[in-house]
Amino acid sequence: MQRLQREGLTFYQFSTWPQLQHGIFTRQGGVSAAPWDSLNMGGTVGDDIRAVRHNHELMYSALRLNQSRACTVWQVHGADTVIADRPVRNRRWLALADGMVTDRPDTPLVMRYADCTPLLFLDARRGVIGIAHAGWRGTVSGAGVSVARTMMQAYGSQPADIQVGIGPSIGPTRYQVGAEVVAAARAYFGTTEGIIRYDPGDGSAYFDLWTANRIDLERNGVVQIEIAGICTAEHTDEFYSHRAERGRTGRFGAVIAL
Length: 258
What we know:
Layout: E1 2-6, E2 9-13, E3 21-25, H1 49-62, E4 81-83, E5 99-102, E6 109-113, E7 117-123, E8 128-134, H2 136-139, H3 143-155, E9 163-166, E10 176-177, H4 179-189, E11 196-198, E12 205-207, H5 209-218, E13 224-227, E14 252-257
Parallel strand pairs: 4-5, 9-13
Antiparallel strand pairs: 1-2, 2-3, 3-14, 5-8, 6-14, 7-8, 7-9, 10-12, 11-12
């Protein structure tokens, strides 16, 4: 990924998409007070809603995007994907979902994160983009694959043409999980090899969200994948981390647009 700064904000872009309007924003450069300091995009975490709205304005301005056309969803840690043609009148979100796709220009897709995995999608041949929010529940429910399949069904995308960027999230050395998560991963993937790592000292399990999402996409024919490899729990100076900050934190934004 490339680390960029513009209008006082710091954000990352995937190196394979230098011409695509997109960004995964850090927590730096906004107006929110601690513990949401400072570019918090989450409106349901206790922050002043006026600060959150101003932070959104800063994000869209940095990428020269049309905020009035921006689309988002109420994220529920699931695997449903919706088609975004335009914002819903008198409502800030389209649906309860964790994925969006569109072929409409000037229609930014935006989501919020704090350890869960941002997945950004592009089919340049057909002019289609997508975005997903994948925590452990979304990952073992196929949230990323849901976006890819919706691109195929709605727009005729072919798996070989779909490019995916796996953004910053909690990394495989910091995401300790319990038996419930291990069982869910085994049930979905048929194995935990390469996905769950066990600590040789105490036997505790660690979930690799990056590899799990990559494997799931690859076994569905999507092979053009770039992984950021940035752990949010290890970089709380740049990203919000629900785990590292014990739930008292904000949400960083990811946005993509044609």
